[in-house]
Amino acid sequence: QEKPSRLSAALLGEDCEISHEQVYELLKYAALGKGHNAAQPSWCHIYHQSHLAGVVVIVLHEMSQLHFYKFYLQFKHLRRVFRHRFTLRPSSANFLANLCGDEANLNPQNTARGSTSTSSQCATNSSDLQRDPIIQKYGEEKQGLTSYTLTLEELKKNDYPMKGHYLFILGSPGYEGYMYTECDQQRTDNSPLFGLDCEMCLTAKGNEVTRVSLVDAQGRCLLNELVKPESRIVNYRTRFSGITRKMLLPVKTKLADIQTRLKRMLPHDAVLVGHSLNADLQALQMIHPSVIDTSLLFARNEGRRFKLKFLAKAVLGKEIQCEQKIGHDPTEDAKAALELAQFFIEQGPAKVAELNLEMLLTTERLTEISPNKSTLKPQQNTVQREQNGPSQLSRSCFLDCLQMTGQKPLLLGRQEPDSSGLCQGNLSSSNKQILQQALKDVPLSTFSIIQFSLDPEHVAPHLLAGICKKVRTKLTDMLTIYAGPFDESFCLKTVRKEFGKCGPIRSLTIMTETYQPYVCIQYEVLEAAQLAVESLNGAEVAGSCIKVQRPVTATMLDCDVLIKELELDIENEGVIYVAGLKKSLTETDLQEEFSQLKDLEALFLPRDLQSGKHRNCCFLKFLKPESAVDAIEVINGWAMMGSRLRSRKALAPGHLWRWIWQMDHSHEKQTGDILSVEKEQQSNFEQELRKKLKKLDQHIRKLYRRLQNNTLCVVLFPGVN
């Protein structure tokens, strides 16, 4: 980040290739952040990670960069919305396990050393314990319950309803008409604790209470009542609330009845305990002066909060909010919050901090040895730590760490990892069914992996080989131009020099099949070929007025459309191509020459991938698209060290021209060793695949539109090998 222009240049050039490890770095930091010792990715920087609403990874199985560029026009949404594109290096490991950070695939050296410096592990020495947010907030010594009740400032900061007079801040907005419990007696460390939880439904008015539970310090249920909301219910939220229309039909109890009963039941020195209790009190429209909020009590870094379900399992060894049940049980939740507060008070902050750290380590050990065993009671954890000492663990999947913090990752698709980390097929789910499920579940999850797949008949090797051959042919044709006619005695050196001003030439051949000589020129970058067509068609070269055109073949019939769409590609926004440079110019020289251009952000000088030498062209990236357009007008005809420059909008991002070079130099020349495919069969196959990929692009568009603002979205084409 000290030199942002270098990062931008990397996005323009050869460094647009990343590994599975780097994808893992990005996803891990985006999902966990500094709160779990996750480090910023080594190859890019995420600003304000704590503001991310979620992370969504869309995996297009069996699809690769080959599919993206062969069916480029079909991926209309993907190429217009997703700003950054990178080539993903192939991996022999299981793709999904690698994506999630399986240690054996990502960093075997760490396994050999027994490295413990990972995101899902926490330090075990005293200096690190001092940095624990629980210790920083409460200290190490045990204290009475009054030390853990929220202060006036904390009540205000966390949106608790507050009284407008007496001991409370004057003029608290929005709480007029709320009932005050009148529990004004001085609290002591012997004051009684009561667990409270509510379930809400969405009404025309907003969230309204539909069920209330209150438990005492012994865990006895004092109140478990359904409540009829005042306004019409627009969403019962049965999946979470457990409330259905049928349940509320006979209910006569109103909110005012519940308020009166709660006020009567609570002693004057009562302390209410709950998880994010502010929401419950707001829904109840009640004000209570003394509360313990377990979502704040078990403090985490950067304001993160553990979910109640996770805390109950990790600290108490209890399973609550089970998936087999329809909705949450407010009595169960109230009791869990109460027991968590009692555990914290009885054990003290130091024990709780140690427990959390050890719990992460123990869960990792259990995940690696036996994924099905994930629950140990706190007392067992502490004993094992004293007996065994610090454990040496390899890195486990960061999805486990998400689950430990109460965040349940969402995994949808035909391929799901089994307990061994391998993928199992679930061919009963179509892409449409996966999309429908994703549209419902993704907005509720902080980390989602959505997998779409092609049908088996669309990944047949011999058919894909045919596509590969066609893509290579089309790319070659787009890089090729024909120029002529020339006089019989024309100077080939003059032609090479003139056409070389448009960009690096790969080959130049004289065509002898025609009445007058023509020249076939193949360039190394698409911009050079297009610039030659635009600037030299009709020009006088080597004493002849010539025509410049691309090959006329079936694959080139949509070339003009493709060129236009490449110009509009969001990755080329604000990027221009400049040709005609002297090869002796260095990157520093060019930066000085172009420094007068307004809003210039980065410069990239390509190298030959074999020799490593600079080419006679460069790419310039501007902060604003309009500045790029202005720069083209300025540069065209600009003389630099005696050489006239030519410029146009960029067509091919760095990863594309690198891929073109790899395609051309690949040892797989798709010759006689490839099974011959009937033309009709190949044509039908491509037509079906074209429709399939267009539909997938529409799926991505629908899912993308459903995402919350500030969501990081990554689409992966892992390929077939």
Automatic annotation (TrEMBL):
Q: Which residue spans adopt a coiled-coil conformation according to this UniProt entry?
A: none
Q: Which Gene3D superfamilies match?
A: 3.30.70.330, Ribonuclease H-like superfamily/Ribonuclease H (3.30.420.10)
Q: Which InterPro entries match?
A: Nucleotide-bd_a/b_plait_sf (IPR012677), RBD_domain_sf (IPR035979), REX1-like_exo (IPR034922), REXO1/3/4-like (IPR047021), Ribonucl_H (IPR013520), RNaseH-like_sf (IPR012337), RNaseH_sf (IPR036397), RRM_dom (IPR000504)
Enumerate the spans annotated as RRM domain.
479-553, 574-652
Query: Could you tell me which residues belong to the region Disordered?
Result: 371-391
Entry superkingdom: Eukaryota
Query: One GO molecular-function annotation for this sequence?
Result: exonuclease activity
Family matches, as SUPFAM superfamilies: Ribonuclease H-like, RNA-binding domain, RBD
Entries under PROSITE patterns matching the protein: RRM
Q: Tell me the Pfam families matching this sequence.
A: RNase_T (PF00929), RRM_1 (PF00076)
CDD domains membership = REX1_like
Keywords, ordered alphabetically: Exonuclease, Hydrolase, Nuclease, RNA-binding
Report one GO cellular component: nucleus
Q: What is this protein called?
A: REXO5 exonuclease
Organism whose genome encodes this protein? Crypturellus undulatus
